[in-house]
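S1.2 Input.
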Amino acid sequence: MAGHPIIRHLSNWCIDGYCFKVDMEGLAAHYEFATAMIDLSRSKDVAMFFAFCEKIDGRYQPIVDESREVVIYTINLKALLDSRSSDFNAIGFQALPRPDAQKAYALWLGHGQNLNKCHFISKKMFKVQRKESEKYFDMFEGGATLFPNDIVDAMALELRQSMEIDKEVLEACFERHLIPTAWDNFDELTKFLKKYGYLVREKQLEFSDGTRRKIIENWNSHSPLSSDRVNCRFVAESV
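S1.3 Output.
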């Protein structure tokens, strides 16, 4: 992703000493890679879509079985901010379109942590109502507006299905203790992965020149940025 042309472009943005944040782990979570983060949204409508619709054979469908229950989790933002937790990520607008479409936030949960026991979390159970399910399904065109087409979608799918792991990435994760400390050294880790069919090698992943051109052309023709979208974070919009 460091070679993504729009990420390079946004990384040069600075306002009064503050620079654009590229949230790699947040992006990974929203492109269905396994992370320690739970996807959140500042939009209740988006949350309701994911509560009342389910993914079947790769496509979202409204839940119509009215005997089922769904749950909505709500964060008390003041309680979270008062706790000075560093585990809450405002992802929002990124070079890739999905987090922006989903008004994305993320919450980091460590191994063994229970979302239900977080003091700033409340939850509410709902009985499924077919009309409600169909309403939110239609509101987001069956999920199409929440998962806008993007060049990286196919690349992300290929990576998720691959049994190959980039050596440089794995080494960085091992050195930063992002992997459980069950192995004394990197060689032991690679032997363990090999035993389960994974191949660790220098992958040198990068965008082709043609893909870079398509990304830039798409950005220039459908720029998601405009001045009316700029506002203060955590400040309510006027009603």
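S1.4 Remarks. DSSP finds ten helices and eleven strands in the chain.
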